[in-house]
Amino acid sequence: MFSEAESVPLGIDSDPPITAPTARYKRNPTIAVSQQRADFAPIFIHYGTLVGMFEVRAVGREGGGAWFTPLSEVVVRARQIRRWSWCVTVVVVSEDPEFLSAFAKSSLQHRLLVWTTRLLVVTRLTLQQVHRLLSSHWTFSMMNAMVLNQQQESSGNRFSLYSHLPYSPQGGQVVQAASWRQPAHRSLHIKFSSLFPEKFSNFYGAIVNVSVLPYAPYWEETAREAEDGTLVKAYSGTDYELLHTMSTTLNFTIHVLPSSTWEEVGQLVADRVSFMSPMHHVPVAQRLKIYDFSYGYEYGSFAFSAATPSLRPRWQSLYYPLSDFVWLAVLAVLCFVPVSLYVVNLLASRLEFENKISFSVAIQMVTATLLSQNLSIQLPKSHANRALVMAWLLFAFIVGTVYRGNLTAALTLPKYPPRPETVEDMVETFDRISMPSYGGVFIENFKNSSYSVFREMGEKMFIIKSALEAMQRSRDLRESHVGWESYMATIIARHFIMADGSAQIYLGRESVSRTLTAWPLPHDAPFKRQVDAIMVTVLEAGLYEKWRSDFLDAVKKETREKQKKALEGEAEGSPEDTGGLVNALNLVHMQGPLLLLLLGLGGAGFVFAVEVLAFSSPFFTCGARWEAVRAILGQPESVKCSLVQLMHGLVSAQSVREMVGQFGIPVGVFEAQMANDVANDTWTTQLSQTVRQARKIRRGSWCMTVVVVSDDSDFLDAFAKSSLQHRLLVWTTRLLVLTRLTLQQVHRLLSSHWTFSMMNAMVLNQQQESSGSSFHGATINVAALPYAPYWDETVQEAEDGRSVKIYSGTDYQLLSVMCHYLNFKIYNIPTSTWKEIGQLVAERKAFMSPVHHVPVAQRRALYDFSYGYEFGSTDFCAAVPSLSPKWHSLYYPLSDYVWLAVLAMLIIVPASLYAVNLLANWLISENRMSLGVSSQTVIATLLAQDLPVKPPKTQAIRALVAAWLLFAFIVGAVYRSNLTAALTLPKYPPRPETIADLVKAFDRISMPPFSKVMIDDFRSSSTPVVKEMGEKMFLTSSVMEALQRTRDGRQAHVGWRTYLSVLIANNFILADGSAEIYLGRESVRQTLTAWPLPHDAPFKRQVDVIMVAVLEAGLYEKWREDILDAIKKETRRKQRQTRQEEEESKSSGDAGGLVSALSLVHMQGPLLLVLLGLVSAVLVFAAEKINGSECGARWEAVRAVLGQPETVQCSLLQLMHGFISAQSIHEVPMVGQFGIPVGVFEAQVASEAANDTWTTQLSQAVRQARKVSKAVVHRLSPNSGLYESVCLDAGELKALS
After folding, report:
1. Is 493 in contact with 559 (CB distance < 8 Å)?
2. I need a labelling partner for 861 at 20 to 30 A (CA). Which of 269, 885, 982, 1035 fits?
């Protein structure tokens, strides 16, 4: 507190500096400004502690009528007193209206007054002058100001208190708050409950100016036509909804001032023409000089956008399915196998007089079989040739299958080129980076950053007028754009989404910066308190998040409608329709084969031209050679120093770099972070590894600075011993220890270790002096239960064998920061339920519960809450639906109607084929095909088999068979492709994603044991779906047990999303990375969470201040990301370990990393089909057995028709020229009518053999045929007049001839 001698400067001649007070004033301090000191001192000294008395003399005036600088100096000094006080009353005494006007301007310019500062003007003016003074200045009209006017009357002095109400039912007016007379024999008249009335609780419908520009999803403008034909602007967006809520609560009308740039928007707020800018702004230092900010209501981030990399050229799809080494191996085998085949055939032909194959034929055969073609010639019969060809065919089959499968996968799941996802990648990739028009201050901050990546990014940045234009440039040019993430996401969704749903612009994963945003308000705005209160209420109710989600859903719906229209337009413009099954292939898809064909034609033309020219030398050499690249050496290497940081505890590495920058050039930086709660026995191992690595850096650097940060003297002792043992330090190595120890501990540390006493070491010690905000090391009771990732407990064994609890988590880290700054220790009271925790806080046995709670009404009745520090959501989880049975994969590729159509064709086509053949047999005596053979032919060709018989030569039958073969080819191709796609991308059954789906799908929904109040809220909700959900809810004793029941599919569970995500990641992730439980997309509830505190806790202010500081620094988000990254890392480790165990337990089969071996699970469909066929065959065999139908019955029927004795046996001689199946000749009726083929002799004569080779082959065949003793004769029967077949022996044949 100031003493009167030190704090009261009298006049302008003596101006001693105002010293900073050492404590807050206990009473209401008063600052008095007057032209005459004696006017007010005896009167107002009893209103408060008079800490500032300033006298301003009218020495002279400038030409403009303004007072000289002493008034400005008085206001500046008064503001210093006001800033060091909780509340201040400023009393201005003057009878000069010009002086009061000058004071109003100066106090506004130098920011003397805030709403909590009361201003009392004591004067003697006329009533008109008082009205003009109050209504013409912001200081008197808008701030918490009163005028005490003294009027001389005949009966005595009359005193009146006047105030200006800017908003009232009658508009802005000057009102008389109180009046009295002297002598005081009459009563005091007071019109208001307070002498300083509230001015901004109700605007009474007045117009309030705001300045803003469209910036989705926060503020949008659309023009619509009114009833009178005029265009009216309609506003929407999250911040407009928040402003509309304020206008409804405070009863004012919104008027948006026209503006063209964000600089103009800010200037309107700074000039107080606009009351606020209802748009989130980042409160950087440059802006804080111009205007103030409201309550920080949203965490957001600057992100960067860039063009989505295009796919590789289509022609490259031919090459992509196999790697370079596989292609080289295939090429080597293509060169080796023809040579081996030629050599083996050459040796076999010399030994066994086999037919010799030329080298070109061997190459043609190998290439053809690799391309899934038939063997072009009949191979020799040597076993060596057969073994070699069999091995090659197996190799070609495997390579072809793998190539086709990977080609299908490459076309189904195309692989995009890598794209920049971090800030470093963006800076390395792009030479120009744009920012919106308001980004000038951010570019300057980036250029002045200590982070080299930010500095380089700032140098590449430039301002662009429109974000849409910037993104168009990003799409067309090699540029990137940095802007607000939510705004860019909306722009991308509206303008850069293709008809197929792909985006032309993407947002990088890493944010450029993350910060808290607020609305700009004029400096010391008197209505800031009302604005902040409404903001907090809206945020705690979750309305802002609801508005955001509604707006984004509308944008997504609009985008989907555009995509749907675009797809419909493409479908109408395309004359082809595939029934929704597959898309027709166009020239873009067929670039690869067409380019390959053109390349082959070009190669063939080149070879032909070379052969025509008949060049002399068949070898060509390339004269071009690569020249060696010379290295530019001789540059002097600059001296580089390394910085090694060894941190123990919660310390910012960035702050350490800046602090020790004077000790060296931190070019190479090595950081080691060690937890401050590890046991002492683990320090040795960690320190040894860290010190050894640091020594390697020291030996490779010219100079090095080692920085050790720790508050633990034991850790520093261990470091000293370890650094000495592993020879970390030399004299040129500087050692700096940053710590917070007592002076005795520092002395002991420096004198007891060689490392600190003899080496080049310094200790930078920070001592915290006692203040009013300290618990002085006292133990504070808290109550918490494990609730990852906020609070977690692990039990470790100490050196003495005791079990020690170690705490971790985001909220524990936040509580640790509070412990450090408020100087207290933590004691966690043992509890078993969350209800018990709340009761301990309500009874003040626990000072707080450092785990987030939702501030519902029932809980507020028991205890208060801290600052709302996290937005979160209550979501539901359910079991991931299992895939359809594997046997279903045979059925899935085609729809039900397609299967019915195929089945109908399988019935219609054999019947049609049989009918056409029957008619042809009647008309032109064509060979007849039975209905069974027709069915066999149709089914075999549908299964991609050859024709089992040669069809008749009727053109009608040929046309029918050709149509069926084309149909079978298309159906088979579509089936195989869709079957591959179904196995590549399995289709999961639909699962509940919204609250409505959840209520329909499940009859029982569990909630954690502390959620009874939330269930009651759901059951009393006015929304039918939420009310029905509440009726199905019940409390569970354990969340883990509830999730296990959820996994089994018996129920769903509703809980905090982050906690459920951690539990699922730790306990319900399979080895392949898939989850057994999923979280629904729609949230059940979104709200702001806080810590429970006792009602009216006196330490709430300190807790809130530390929370805000930690949140604004981004530490809480950093702790959360670190914990979640550790959980993901542990999950991946478990998955990797599980996969290794599975691989070790498997057989020695290995697919080379290309494909996984198919198991019985994958082959369920074919195996079930085979079993079904076997069962059907057994049933048919049993039916034939029961009916007495045996294989010999057919022969008996034939013998009965022909009348031949049973002993007659005829032989059938088949001499075939061309590609005709002997099996088909045996069984078709064409041959059956010529004899009973009991003994069969077959001779094959190749159709492509030369005419001169027929003689040899035919001679051999005829000589062997002469050995047949009986033959078949087809002759006309004299009895029946019909053709009959008889068997004749050699003698009968000779007589017949």
Report:
1. yes
2. 1035
